[in-house]
Amino acid sequence: MNIMKSALLGTAATLVAVAGAQAADLPSKKAAPATYVKICDAYGAGFFYIPGTETCLHVGGYVRAEYQYTPAVNTYTPKAETVAATLQSVYAAAAIPKNLQDTMGYEVRGRIEVDARTPTSMGPARTFVRLRTASTSGIRASVAQVNAGGMALGAATSAAITLEAAMVQWAGFTFGRGSENYAMMPGIMYGGAPWAGFPSGMNQLAYTQNLGGGFSATIALEDRRDTFVQTLGATNSTPTNGIVYVGNIRLDQAWGMAAVHALAMPNSYYKNATGQVGPTMADFSADTGLTASPTTSTTAVSTAMKQGYAIGATVNLKLPMIGAGDNLWLTANYSDGAISTILGGATLNAVNTVSQNRLLGGVFRSLTNIVQTSQTSVDNVTAWNVGGLFTHYWAPQWRSNFVAGYVEIIPPTKETASIQQWGKGQLQNYMGSLIYSPAKDLDIGLELQYAQLKNKVQGTTALTDATGLKATNWSTKLRVERNF
Q1: Contact 248, 258 (CB under 8 A)
Q2: What beta strand segments (E) does 275-397 contain?
Q3: Which residues, including other chains, have CB under 8 Å from residue 442's CB and lie 6 or more apart?
Q4: What's phi and psi for 120, nearest 5 deg?
Q5: How many whole angstroms separate alpha carbon 119 and alpha carbon 123?
Q6: CATH code of the domain occupying 64-483
Q7: Rounded-to-integer distance, Cα 44 and Cα 122, Å
Q8: Which residues of 321-351 are buried (b: 16+ CB within 10 A; e: fewer)?
């Protein structure tokens, strides 16, 4: 009896165990734990962890719509009875008649950026990509339409994708494309401030060392093509190979920042073994009729280089005693053969280089880092500037920007008087804006800009009616921008 009882109990226990095992194999009605995005606050707001990794990611960008109006003005009227034909050609090549100028411009652009950072024993390894695209027309066109007279108009509509940045940063090094290391002023006015700006980025190899106490130093090798260098001659036909050497030392503190920055770059031109120089290869291959250029090629032609440089200082002061968020930026720069460090686009009237410089009534004056001073010599163009930007918050949702700047560009003196070329140029530029932000990262702003340009001509005795081109004009813009 006891033996029978033990056998039944053992069988029951075995059946329970088997049933339990089979039940464990059945699908569970309980849902798996949900995986949520985890916030990463190590690098600031907006970063989150990529699931399953230690990499933090931030995605951002903006959409901007901008509308511009600039009245048309005449800056030069030829006077055949008092001005030599050669001088008229210098003026006519630079001044678009009033009745041929665009007065309206539209620009719609979008930008997207991705920032990924992973911690390492030598600091975060960062990968950053930024792309922008735009549709522009009228005076905002980035591709000019040229009429039968050769005048540049902005009637074309264009769309393009620009790689502003694509870089890897680690242990103080920057590899790839990123912000330029010389220019430090903020881009409040896109393409329109009286100081250097490189909104499309710079190919570079750079290293930044933290020196302690808020001091840091950066050295960089940058791509010469990205500095918007114009070499001898309007065609820019000489090779642009070369390295731009850039360095800066800056101090960052609670009150703001201060920095000194310098740049050295080569400028190329054509030269033959006898010492003759020329803007284009054609100057050495045939009789071109250019007084100061070689007319025959008796020896091999190659390229030569002339060194240019620039030095400057930039200061930013935070002014909470005036208003929360208020700050002041100041800059001063001197250039010898590196005009792009003084004014974006390396043109004196580059109040908006992207729109073919028509803010000042159609004056289209392009300058180069070097000019030909005789049949056998070239020299650097020198330039300097001072500029300031003040941002004031009237209320948390209302702010204004105020800009003032002065630029002076001085080409070398011509040794051959028969050649007409631009002389000293002076630009004054002022801007004021009022911006309303009804929500975070949403700006609706109105901007008013005033500029005055004076151009002189040298190398001629036929200056009986004027000393050069003069232009005074204003422009207004409406901008709506949403950042995310």
Answers
A1: no
A2: 277-278, 301-318, 327-336, 370-374, 377-380, 382-395
A3: 481, 482, 483
A4: -135, 175
A5: 6
A6: 2.40.160
A7: 19
A8: eeeeebbbbbbebbbbbbbbbbbbbbbbbbb
What pLDDT band is residue 234 in, cutting at 50, 70 and 90? very low
19 phi and psi, to 5 degrees? -60, -40
Name, in order, each residue with C-beta under 8 angstroms of 440's C-beta and a sequence gap of 6 or more.
Answer: none
With 90 as the cut, is the pLDDT of residue 326 above it? yes
**Which residues touch 11 (CB under 8 Å, ≥6 apart)?**
none
The reported pLDDT for the residue numbered 30 is 60
What residue segments make up the domains of the chain, in order of their start? 64-483
Q: How far is CA 21 from CA 10, 25, 242, 270, 418, in A?
A: 17, 7, 75, 89, 105
The DSSP output letter for 19 is H
d(CA 300, CA 284): 9
CB 257 within 8 A of CB 250: yes
The two tokens of residue 174 are: 């920057």
Q: Which two tokens stand for residue 86?
A: 């050669």
Give me 373's structure tokens: 């001073």
* Residue 428: strand pairing partners: 406, 452
CA angle in degrees (0–180, nearest 5) for 50-54-58 = 45
Closest to 70 (Cα-Cα) out of 469, 347, 477: 477
Q: Which helix (H) or strand (E) holds 90?
A: helix 85-92
Question: In this model, does residue 361 exceed pLDDT 70?
Answer: no
Handedness of CA 121, 221, 212, 325 (dihedral sign): negative
Lowest pLDDT segment from 174-178, 258-262, 364-368, 433-437: 364-368
Nearest to 63 by CA among 109, 103, 113: 109
The one-letter code for the residue type at 468 is G
Question: Is the pTM for the entire model greater than 0.70?
Answer: yes
Q: 384 vs 274, which has greater pLDDT?
A: 384
Give me 195's structure tokens: 């100081």
Which residues have a Cβ under 8 Å from the Cβ of 26 and sit 6 or more positions away? none
Task: Specify whether the CB–CB gap between 368 and 233 falls below 8 A.
Answer: yes
- Report the alpha-carbon distance of residue 403 to residue 23 in Å, rounded: 77
What is the b/e burial string over 94-113, where b = at least 16 CB atoms within 10 angstroms of the residue's CB? bbbbeeebbeebbbbbebeb
The predicted-structure confidence for 35-75, as pLDDT tens digits, reads as follows: 578 999 999 999 999 998 999 999 999 999 999 888 877 76
- pLDDT value, residue 204: 96
pLDDT category at 280 given cuts 50, 70, 90 is low
Please report, for residues 145, 146, 290, the alpha-carbon distance to residue 149 in angstroms, rounded to integers and kept in the order given: 11, 8, 22
